[in-house]
Here is the input.
Amino acid sequence: MTRKTVDIFISGGGIAGLIAAASFARLGFSVVLADPAPPVASANVDGSDLRSTAFLEPARALLEDIALWETLAPHATPLETLRVIDTQDQPPQIRTDRAFQASDLGYPAFGWNLPNWLTRHTLTEKLSEMGGVELCLGVGFRAILTREREAIVTLSDNRQIRARLAIAADGRNSPLRDAVGIDTKTTRYGQKALAFVVTHETTHDNISTELYLSGGAFTLVPLPDHDGNSASAVVWMNDGPVAAELMSLSDAEFSAAATTRSCGILGNLKLASPRRLWPIVTQSATRLIAERTAIIAEAAHVLPPIGAQGLNTSLHDVATLAALAKSDPDSIGTPAFLASFAKAREGDL
Here is the structure.
């Protein structure tokens, strides 16, 4: 059987995996990335990730450094103001309302918000044009055999890849992490998050708003206009039974419920996308490395969708791996390289 030989194999073509592939390719390393699920082309396709992510400054700087930010910037909405509202009673009423300006800290924005599905789609198109990266989309990881000097990966189409380093960026149910014998620790909170997009009567003025109430937060994050209307991405956290009840509502009933929960701060909200339901859990890998293997992103740590923690933490993993590779290219995948990565990132487990 013919085996392709590369420097890096990445299992997982989500946002973190794609950015990792670009980071290594920009450093001159050869990369193969495999993912069984190609990116969707629109928000309305089944399986699209309707959550959005605010890329904070370290993440934006990483994307700038690897020449990806200019591709994403036209789709990004700057978060210039953070508004925090405490509510009480049913229907919710505003108790306190505070606004924090990024300019007061000398920053142009707290972050730049991008829909997850669009980020993945845009990055995939960009990487398909880059040298040094082979994208195997629609093809998944099947098995791995590691040796002192290499990892031999078998894909679902029976192709084999020889790599100096294998990276698991394939999500909370990571097959590569499982294949190298790394367990996880999971904590469940009995809550679920609804993710969806709304249009609204009042412009958001690049303000990200978090409304707190017992049972969970309701977060409105600004997006570019949708069909000529002001739009925001919403993450609405609730206890599990309440979330299930909300999912059962008609679109009109759901829009009315969301308007009530938002205290009408942006006027009437109108559902502009499908609804997706996500469990609120934390999960962490028991270790971040195995022979010739590094575990990153949600394969390493799953965080609740609060404060842009998840992806920005994942990109710290990517930046750390890339910095180690840049400082000593010959050490990639060695025990010393992997030990340095684990020591640098163990604080987020």
Q: What stands out?
A: The CA atoms of residues 216 and 237 lie 5 Å apart.
